[in-house]
Every structure is written in C-alpha cells, then in structure tokens.
Amino acid sequence: MVGVSAGGMLALERLLACLPVGFASAVIIVQHLHPTEDGYLALHLDQHCALPVGVAEDKAPVCPATVTLAPAGYHLLVERCRTFALSIDARVCFARPAIDVLFESAARVWGARLWGVLLTGANHDGTRGLAEIRALGGRTIAQDPADAEHPLMPQTAIDAGVVQQVLTLDGIGALLAALPAAASAMEQERII
Amino acid sequence: MDPQQLESIEVDLLLEAIYRRYGHDFRNYARASIERRVRQFHAQSGCATLSDMLPRLLHDEAFFADFVTRFSIPVTELFRDPQVYLALRNEVMPVLRTFPFLRIWHAGCASGEEVYSLAILLDEAGLLARSTLFATDFNDTALERARAGIYSAADMGEASRAYQRAGGARSLADYYHADAQHIVMKRRLRERVTFANHNLVTDGVFTEAHLVLCRNVLIYFNQALQDRVLGLFRDTLVRGGYLCLGTRENLRFSAVDSSFEVVDAACRLYKRLA
Questions:
Q1: What is the bridge-based pairing of β-strands B131-137 and B102-107?
Q2: How many domains would you assign to chain A?
Q3: Domain range holding A111?
Q4: Is residue A20 included in any domain, yes or no?
Q5: Nearest CB partner across the interface for B4, out of A77, A78, A108
Q6: What is this model's ipTM?
Q7: CATH code (residue A149)
Q8: What is the pLDDT of residues A152-173, one digit of tens each?
Q9: Interior CA angle at B221 toward B45 and A101, to 5°?
Q10: What is the pLDDT of residues B215-271, one digit of tens each?
Q11: CB-based contacts of A105: which residues, under 8 Å, 6+ apart?
C-alpha cells in the first residue's frame, strides 16, 4: 500500500523502478491526482516498472505481482474477499481518492501482512490510515521528510507517532526489492 | 474472536435491524463502503460500541432518520467525466432524435448535478421539449437537494471547463442563475425532470425508457444486487435503448451481459439488443 501526493510522479517513478521481475506482492497506490490524469499516470509508470501497472476496476480481484492505482475521482477500498471496491463518498482530507480510506480498509483485510508506505505530499492524508495499519499489526514506513519533495505528509505521520521506519526513497526501494520472490508468494501473500 | 470479526457481526445485526424495522435494505451493499459509513456514523453517535446503536436504531425513529440523512450521499459534479457526455452528445442524441417522444431514467441521481447535465445535452440537441426525465434516489435528503438544483458557485469554474470538454458550445452560465455563493439551475430545466423516491434494492420497473443512466451506484452494491439492478434496467429499456454506467463499472461479470452490445467501451455506454 503506497500513499503519495504532491511530488508523487517522480517519487513513484523511482520507487517502482526498484521492483524487480519476480516481485510477488500486490502493490496498491493512492496518488492524489487531477481528475483527468489517471490513465496517463498508469501508462507512464508502466514504462518504468517491471510489473504491469494499471488502474483499479470495481470488483476486480487484487492480483499479486501487479501495481494498481486508485482511479482519479474515486476512493479505493478492498473487500475481505480481496476484490477492489470503489466509492464516491465525500472527500477525506480534501482528497478523493484518499490514502486514509484505502489504508483503513486494507488494514482490515490483511492485518499483519500489510505494509503501509507514505511518501511525499503537502497534505495530512495517510496518518490515520497508517495508525490503523499499525494498530492491526501491519508495518508502517514513511519517506524521510528531508528526502521528500513535499515533507508535510510524511512528517505529519511521524509526528503522530504511527511510523515504525523512516527511510529515503532509495531505502524504501531497496527494502521492497529485497522481499522474498515468487516462491514464497503463495503462503506469504504480503501486500505492500 | 478478533475485533474485525466482531465488528462484522455487529454490522450484520445493524443492517438486519434497519431492514426489518424500516424496510431500508442495505444488506447487499458492497461491504467495505457500508462498514466505513457505519463506523463514521458511530464515531459521532455517542455510543460505546457499534452494537450499542442497535436499541437506539430500533426504538428511536429520530436516531434512524439521522442515520439515513447523514448516511453519506454520493458526491457528484456537473458533467462529471466530460468524455461520457461528449459520447452521449455525439453517439446517442442523433439516435434519440428518431423517436417521437423520449423517456429517460436517471437511477440513483444523488444530488442531481448529472441529471441537469443531461437535460442541458437534450436542450442543445433540441430534444428537451419532447423528453420526460425521471430522476430517482432512495434518499429523500438527496432528492430534496436534487429537486432544488442549488449548488455552490465556487464549483462553477471547474463545471464550466467540464461542460466545454463535453462539447458544450455555449456558456454554462446560460443554464443557471447565480448569486455570490450559490447557483440555481433554471426553471425550464428543472420542470422537465420528475424527481421521485425509488429504491433499486426493493422496487421494480416503473416505466419504459429510451435511455437509462446509472453512474457510480453499482459500485455500492455487491454482485448479486448488481445483477438484480441490471435486470431492472434491461427490462426498462426499449430495444435499441441505451444504458450508461460509471466509467469504472461494467457488464463484464454480470448475468445481463448478453442482452447488451458495447457502444463505447471507455465511456461504459451500452445498447439493448433487439
């Protein structure tokens, strides 16, 4: 699970480039973006990533070894049966999609197997979601504010005491790249 | 038992109670969103646990009214997804023109912005005078808002750009009266629309229609409920009539798939087969 806002295009480009062929987990991303840009963002990121990058469809299953972006203008949630769900409920922290909405629903589905990563952003979104992930046993990581193009979003989460690990973007990339490969995917089903 | 399982039981009980006491059936709503809404309502209810809301929902009608009112109403915009309105303008309006009169059903109209967007398209195609638009929702608060046609003036800049991307050649301001804070849609648009309470979960077919719009409503339903509702739309549409869904919804996994052909895949525009 990755939440990212202002400055996110470059950050995602660099992070996704770190994921190796054979990376076995599902990567789900909320980027606060302009309502007309999501198709372009997915196409663009697809060129920088060894895994296929797409935009979530309502009721489609969450697939391992793929990267899925929340569609612009919709909140993205995950059902217990591991399918995507969308909503157009009110904005959260002025954002739809909101990071909090995705993180909170995913925490309930994957619990301790979930990693929540919060990157650059000029917004308070994501802090509540990370708190929920942590409360349910998941792992919480924030980009080092000094390394972030916009430090407010990761800094807010760090100040709230919900972040376990603060890393640079390259550090997060290296951590993800070192995750066990496809062989262990079936039993682990670790979701990032 | 872990807290999530417990919470799931509590939500089941609340939804069952609401259905049997008041007839509002949320039991087949998509679960992640309904649980989020229940938790949000609970957070400001003053109740200690989710199930503490149960006696109050059952015995206190005002508490339930508050629940349904606050039950967040989907938030939409004028000309949301402009490319869809462009497709309706270019591909559907020319066919609708061949009918002597038109019936259009906008199901799940929420606060009504998209009904007025469609009324504007019909007006610009010269079809508004022979059209009857039914706009329905199960939520009376949403219907009141839709019927009033009053929206924030601050949103009109964005709406105006969307209108232009939807092929609008006039000024969106031609269709509303504005003061500093608000706009109200002009009467000649509002009077073409019949707003009515209709619940897609429990109510049936009530008219024949040439065009059904139901955008971003199916995302709130589970697969079984989706199939029921799509069946209603199939039975409502005349042969050759059009169905327009939200841009992230589709017929691919549904039981009615074979009754429709795709007109515009990206815009989720379908045609009822003969």
A1: parallel
A2: 1
A3: 2-178
A4: yes
A5: A108
A6: 0.85
A7: 3.40.50.180
A8: 999 999 999 999 999 999 999 9
A9: 55
A10: 999 999 998 999 999 999 999 999 999 999 999 998 887 888 899 999 999 999 999
A11: A77, A78, A85, B32, B36
